[in-house]
Structure formats: C-alpha cells, structure tokens
Amino acid sequence: MIDLLQFEFMQRALIAALLVGLAAPAIGTFIVQRRLALLGDGIGHVALTGVALGFLTGTAPVLTAVVVSVLGAVAIELVRERGRTGGDVALALLFYGGIAGGVLLISLAPGGSNSSLLYYLFGSISSVSVEDVWVIALLAVAVLFVVVFFGRELYVLCQDEEVAKTSGLPVRFLSLLIAVTAALTVVIAMRVVGLLLVSALMVVPVATSQQLTRGFRSTMLLAMVFGMIATVSGLTSSFYVKVPSGAIIVVIALGGFVLALGLGRFVRRSRPQESSP
Amino acid sequence: MSGGQVSLDRRPVLRGVDLTIGAGEVVAVLGANGSGKSTLIRALLGLIPLSGGTTLLYGSPPARFRQWWRIGYVPQRLSVGGGVPTTIREVVASGRIARQRRLRLTSAADREATSRALEAVGMADRAGDPVQALSGGQQQRVLIARALAGEPDTFVMDEPTAGVDAQSQQLLADTLTSLVSQGKTVLLVAHELGPLEPLITRAVVLRNGFVCHDGAPPHAVGAHALPGHDHVHPHAADKPLSPLDWRPTP
C-alpha cells in the first residue's frame, strides 16, 4: 500500500475512488428505495453522447457529460412522472439513443474513434488528471450536500409520493433533484468504473448493506462504507494485478453482496421473534 | 375543509359530489367497492386532479395550500418501496416532516411527538424493528402513528380497517376516541365500520360516483338499500355544477 502511494497518478486515483465510493451509494440508497435501480444505467447511456459531444466540440468530455446527463436525467424523470404505462419503453428508447448518439458523434469528431470512448465505457482511473480530481471532488461534495440537506424530505418522497404531497413537500422539485444528483454521480463515477458499470456502485453496496441492517439511515451509512471498501480495494488490486479497475471494483462489490447474503440469513435466523406477526 | 365536485379518471368516478367537512366532525365515507370512496378523499386532498369543480383545504385550493401540517394523511397501505429496510421509528418520525425546516436538526419536540405516537399505537417496544417484518395490521398502526406524530388537526384515513386484525381495529377505535375527545377532525374511508361505528358522527355513502346518503350513520343494514337520491349539502361553498345537471362526457 505504501509503495503504491509513491505514484502521483495513484494518489489521484485513490482520492477519486474514495469520493466515488462515498457518494454513489449515498444517493443510490434513495434510488433503490424509489425502485429506480436502473436509473443510473439509463443516465450512463445518455452520458456517452455527452462524452462524444465533448470530443467533437473540443471541450472537456467531463463537462459535456455533466450537461447531457443532467438533461437526460430530467427527461427520464419527466417520462416517469407522466406515463404509468409505456414508461419503460420510453426509457429504453432514451438508452439506445444515448449509445447510438455517442458512437455516431465520436466518429464525426476529428481523430476520434470508438477506442476513445472505451476509457469512458469501462473507466480508466489511472488516467485521472488533477483537474478531473477537482471536478470529481466538487461534484461529490454537491451530491453529499444534497443527501444531508434534503435527506429527510427525500426519505419521505421515496417512501410514498402521496404522503410527501400531503406533507406539503415540493414533490416535483425533489424528484428532479434525485434525478439530477444521480446524473452528477454517474459523471463522477464514470472515470472510476466506466459508464457501463456506474450503476453497480449505486446499487450493489446498498443491496449488500440491506442484508445486514434494519434501518434506512444505517443502510445508507453501511452502504457508503462498503462502497469505499470496494473502490479502494479494487483500485489497489488493479495496481498489483494487471486488471481493469472498474471491473475488479464491481466484482469485489458483488463478492461482498454474496457474503452479506449468507451472513444476513444467519443474522436473521438468530433473531427469531422478528418475523413473528 | 370544503370539498369538491367532479373527478374523472378517463371514466367518470365521481360524477358531482358536494361535501363539506366541518371542524370536529368524524365522517365516514362508505360505499361498495368501486363506488369512488378512495378517489373522493384523494381528490379532496388534491392528489388526483379534478376534471370539474373545486376542492378547498381550509379555504385554499390544494396547489396553494401551505398549512399541510394541519392534515395527517393515512394511506391505504405502507409502501415498503425498493426493499431498503427502515425502522418503525424512522417511518413514524418522518410524520414530523411538515413541521420541520431544512437543516434544522431533529428537535426534542420531534422526538417526544414520535415517542408519544409510538406509544399510542402500542409499538414503542418495537420501534427499532424494520417495518418490513410487520403484519398488515401492525403496518396500519405504524401509518397511523406517522400521522399522529405530525400532530395535525385533521386526519384523513384511507381504509384504516381493511385487512386489519380485530385487536388492531380495537386499538384504532381507542386512538380515534382520544383524537375525537381532543376535538380533532377525522375523515375516513371504510368498507365496514366495525368497532369504529359508535364514534362516527356523520356518514357519507357513495354510489356510482354520487353521494346517495349524507347524514347520520346508517345502522347495520339499510346502507345499500338506500334509494339513489342525491343529497346536496346546503353549505357547500360554490357549485359550478349541480349534480343533477351533470352529464358524463361521451
């Protein structure tokens, strides 16, 4: 671990990994509670168009990805709010549009090819620049700020939208807030695990932690711990064994889930009166 | 609370309902399945848009209503969402939301109200348990506790007795008794009244989207045998449409 910290690119990568491991499960808890586990995937697909747009226009891909994925997230939320039926089809259309748009735009960009997209699709944390770290840190703070500041309201919203309405909460604003925060999380996690695996960091640590906890707050906090363990240990092992960091991070997270599943069964069995009516 | 007129959900569900609930009343909305009972109270709260007519909460339309802490809504069932565990205390404490400000930490008053609400429904000893592990009747009690925690003036309950065991029904009746003695207003939807019957001061019976009885609670039989006459309440605020004039859109 010490020799690994001698490399500056590893220091930057570790900071990015920690921040992503912290922020993604925090907002992920609300998203899972809202039954929107695939929202991150959807935004990830759309963000690819944003990345390609950055290459095409010569601006930083992270910035264009923020803009496009926020727009995409708002669109997804509006579709979700409108349609009870056909909503999933509309979402699917948006996903395909995102990928196709990304591949199309990158081919138009000067010197661009699908291989430049690969870094974003699968992540390449070791190529994180100083500016990237700043952007990631800023966005992570924004995500955590939303969770702390609006957490109580988001909890009610994710529990029951009608109760949120009759409590006088700004339901539409909060729904958009969740979508936009998810979009920001996708962009910060994109460099670490890649757009195709972004959602894993928002969902898997939450799924892991809910095997072991009884409360919402404790689920979220434990998920954040699990998220950081997965990103940091994944990054470290990708340094020693030549494997892509994104994939190993997600595999570690999934391994944690399987362990927690078994452990959770055991814990619940030792609490016999809990399931009694 | 002064309430509304016509509500459509593609097909007409409420075909012109005039209803005013006065402070301190305990009103039960009765009727067969599909008669529009739940639709009525959801429309009253502004959860479903009206296709005609108006609904007012303490004198203002729901979109401009700002005193939501005065209303405690108890939905039909607890939605456990995407499966993230949550404790009974967390759910009940969230009932304080309409009284809390952002960035203000949970106050001692919040905590006391939460504990009192848990106490009232007999769930204090289980506050740390996940709601997912509870039976239907117990979840109903948690929902009621959540509304109690907000200390509202008016309780709006959607089928609080449906699928609830006898013990929880009795507990609900006891809870309502104490609310009524504090002068709270209660509007509830019920399929059958059970132990709540002696508490009800007024019954509104819906049939085919019309109010077919509004007055003293119908005892035992008779509710369904009532003729389908429309009982227009005299002090309904404004009536853009009279129920008798109303024609469903083709």
TrEMBL record, chain A:
Gene3D superfamilies named in the record: ABC transporter involved in vitamin B12 uptake, BtuC (1.10.3470.10)
Give a Gene Ontology cellular component term annotated to this protein. ATP-binding cassette (ABC) transporter complex
Positions of transmembrane segments: 52-79, 91-113, 133-151, 188-208, 220-241, 247-267
Is-annotated flag, keyword Amino-acid biosynthesis? Answer: no
InterPro entries on file: ABC_BtuC-like, ABC_TroCD
The entry's keywords: Membrane, Transmembrane, Transmembrane helix, Transport
Q: What compartments host this protein?
A: Cell membrane; Membrane
Q: Name one GO biological process term.
A: response to zinc ion
- Give the way it sits in the membrane: Multi-pass membrane protein
Q: Which family does it belong to?
A: Belongs to the ABC-3 integral membrane protein family.
The protein here is known as Zinc transport system permease protein
Phylogenetic lineage = Bacteria, Bacillati, Actinomycetota, Actinomycetes, Streptosporangiales
UniProtKB/TrEMBL annotation, chain B:
Its Gene Ontology molecular function terms?
ATP binding; ATP hydrolysis activity
| SUPFAM superfamilies per record | P-loop containing nucleoside triphosphate hydrolases
Keywords attached to this Swiss-Prot or TrEMBL record, sorted alphabetically, are: ATP-binding, Hydrolase, Nucleotide-binding, Transport
Q: What Pfam families does its record include? A: ABC_tran
- PROSITE patterns found in the cross-reference section: ABC_TRANSPORTER_1, ABC_TRANSPORTER_2
Broad EC category:
hydrolase
Location of the ABC transporter domain: 1-233
Instruction: Please report the name of this protein according to its UniProt entry.
Output: Zinc transport system ATP-binding protein
